Amino acid sequence: MSSRSILVVDNDTVIREYLATFLAARGHAVECLGSGDEAIERLASGFSPLMILLDIVPPDKDGIEVLSNFKSIDPSIPIITLSRIGQIKTVVEAMKIGASGYLTKPFEEEALELEIDNVLEKQRLKEEVKTLKQQLAYIEQGNILTSNPQMLRIIDIARHVAGTDVPVLILGESGVGKEVVASFIHEQSNRSDGPFVKVNCAALPHELLEAELFGYERGAVTSAIRDKTGKFEQADKGTMLLDEIGELSPYLQTRLLQVLQDSEISRLGSKRPVKINVRVLATTNKKLKEAVLKGEFRNDLYFRLNVIKFELPPLRERREDIPLLCNHFLEKYRDRYQSPVRQIPKELMELFLRYDWPGNVRQLENVVKRYLILPDADIISELKTANTEAVAVIPTRTVSLKEVSGHAAEVAEKEVVLRVLEDTGWNRKEAARRLMISYKALRNKLKKWQLVRQRPEVVRALGKSA
Fold first, then answer.
1. Which of 284, 279, 320 is nearest to 152 (CA)?
2. What is the DSSP string of 94-105?
3. Which terminal residue of the chain, N or C, has fewer Cβ atoms less than 10 Å from its own Cβ?
4. CATH classification of 139-313, choosing from 3.40.50.2300, 3.30.930.10, 3.40.50.300, 1.10.10.10?
5. Cα–Cα–Cα angle for 142, 145, 150, nearest 5°?
6. 315-389, which class in CATH?
7. pLDDT band at 250; cut points 50, 70, 90
8. Distance CA 411, CA 405 (A)
9. Which of 324, 413, 416 is nearest to 364 (CA)?
10. Which pLDDT does position 143 carry in this prediction?
11. Average pLDDT in the 26-47 region?
């Protein structure tokens, strides 16, 4: 029996047989039961019919009670009640409880068919509205815009764990929105009235990062002419976000582990511990498990942070979000840049949906900004070239495997360099440090590839006139 059958519940054998024949002739699978108790038991076993036709006045059990039981088992199943003349009060009560429609015996075939069609149409519209709401899901508190089932599931879990004080580890490629999810967790937590302090662990050298996190006493470091409160103290009774946690030095990993264990810190130059009440969230685009196996990241710290873990999918794995994000960025930046653009052209949107977005949401946001400022720029050609460059075949009569592999390696190297430059805001010295090459080597590569930071013509013009 199909799980989407129409269930007929009526003690009258003639009515049951008539309805079974009538519904089967119109292409419906049908299951018939003669009592309310049987029907309740059937639904309780997990059976989920497309619809129920229920005799509202069966002899064995009160019909209203049966209807209430149905609704408590599965409130989403539409129910049409079958009543006799003079039972208006019972019908009204049934509609209040949640019946989707009713028919009075005896009824015409046309009336039965019309009522069934109406109820199924209402049910279809309800499901459609539910789907549209999911597709337009917008969690304003965290500025998260998504219709992707995996992301919606992550948001749902994040909302549930927000009220706890356990650490949360958020993994994902650069630009996927790790900081946005962290902010959402803070806003949904009991600490939302407290500070939300962010520290990029990759942005500062080891010594400066330690001073930034823990603070220092006067005279503890060069040029320390007064006491400085560290980020952990600033985050007291709030949330601390440690961005790019995988970049922490072994020494700072040890200090962070002590903070998580003891809920206290010591400023540089001080032996007096300071108690803190801080929830720690951490993000990274590194594969921390592999870093642990290589001895680059402390195993005990990893398990301290990994109480709750989210792995955010890259934009290429949730392409259904691209139109939503594009519209959001258009609305967000159109007035700021005084742009005449009102929507993304169809051809450009189709390309956006095919493009792999190595820089993820951040890259999409930057491309939309650029289109708003320079709508005549040939973004389509640029993205088409970028999408095919990695698989471009070298056009030679005799193909050299060494030449092909060298070309592919250079394309991959160029993509990595661009991504790191974007992550560092085109800070070339910092990019060179992260790439573990000399600053001179990076400059030579940029010169070879003729790569310069793209700046809108409008901004350059303003700079010249200033």
1. 320
2. HHHHT--EEEEE
3. C
4. 3.40.50.300
5. 100
6. mainly alpha
7. very high
8. 10
9. 324
10. 66
11. 90
What helix, strand, coil percent values describe the chain, rounded to 5?
50, 15, 35
Residue the block writes with tokens 């619809």: 51
Q: 0.85 exceeded by the pTM? A: no
For residue 187, pLDDT beyond 80: yes
Phi and psi at 357, nearest 5°, equal 50, 70
Give pLDDT tens digits for 384-397: 776 655 444 334 44
**Average pLDDT of the chain to the nearest whole number:** 83
Residue range 6-134 in CATH 3.40.50.2000? no
Cis peptide bond upstream of 106, omega within 30? yes
93 pLDDT more than 80: yes
Tell me how many degrees the CA angle 418-423-427 measures, rounded to the nearest 5. Answer: 80
Nearest-CA neighbor of 245 among 191, 309, 192, 188? 309
Average pLDDT over residues 73-100: 85
**Residue indicated by tokens 């392409």:** 319
Q: How far apart are CA 150 and CA 324, in angstroms?
A: 16
Q: Kind of pairing, strands 274-275 and 264-265? A: antiparallel
Judging by DSSP bridges, how do beta strands 168-171 and 196-200 pair with one another?
unpaired
Least confident segment among 13-17, 102-106, 287-291: 102-106
* CA atoms of 199 and 169, how far apart (whole Å): 15
* 283 close to 242: Cβ distance less than 8 angstroms: yes
